[in-house]
Design goal:
single chain, alpha/beta, 4-stranded antiparallel sheet
């Protein structure tokens, strides 16, 4: 069983409630999160990725509840947030190998993986360039690529195709669909209508709760 389950998960910032009792199960395959801007999609992804803690509720990975399962979950997690500060002075390859070290991955294997991932999404020719010279679309592909290092079992992606041209977005989408054959992939994207036929489910977030779309 490869499955993430959320029960009665809540999150608020001050007096503003964002998630008001989310109940959702994420099986292996692609789950799309949809809903209006500000509905809590990114907040839910950060909670799934253990980047934020909920106020209340239960999160289970393969039947084991957190916080006990938090470290286990982080070991099998790949996360691509919508906005992240990248180390401008590093090359993309140096950054990827740094992320691999933080994940405890074998350096040589991670380097091979990074090469294959970046080749698939049209970034490989630029991996030895400093990130400072990267365009917005190149940065987006780099953030996506590092999330796939280590062949994670849980992948959380926040708008991975934003700022990408049609060809690059198609390459990223094809690779994530391939990964969804063997992992739990939870994603927000402006391409939801195009990817919905390949998804195992589409969840809509509104009024702090989720429902099948």
């Amino acid at each position: 069983m490869t499955e993430l389950t959320l029960s009665a998960v809540t999150k608020a910032y001050g007096r503003k409630s964002v998630l008001a009792g989310v109940d959702a199960t994420f099986p292996a395959g692609l789950t799309l999160l949809v809903g209006p801007s500000g509905a809590g999609k990114s907040t839910l992804l950060r909670i799934i990725a253990t980047a934020e803690k909920p106020q209340s509720g239960t999160i289970c990975w393969n039947g084991a509840p957190m916080p006990g399962a938090r470290q286990t979950l982080r070991q099998v997690l790949g996360y691509a947030p919508q906005a992240v500060e990248l180390p401008e002075e590093l090359t993309a390859r140096e950054f990827a190998l740094h992320i691999a070290a933080l994940k405890g991955l074998d350096t040589a294997e991670a380097d091979l993986q990074f090469g294959a991932i970046t080749a698939a999404i049209g970034l490989h020719d630029d991996i030895n360039r400093r990130i400072a010279g990267y365009s917005g679309g190149m940065r987006r592909r780099l953030i996506f690529a590092q999330a796939l290092l280590g062949d994670p079992q849980l992948i959380a992606l926040d708008e991975p195709t934003a700022e990408l041209d049609h060809e690059s977005a198609a390459a990223v989408s094809a690779l994530l669909l391939e990964r969804a054959r063997r992992a739990v992939v939870v994603m927000t994207t402006h391409l939801a209508d195009q990817l919905a036929p390949q998804a195992v489910q589409v969840l809509r977030i509104a009024d702090g709760k989720t429902s099948k779309a």
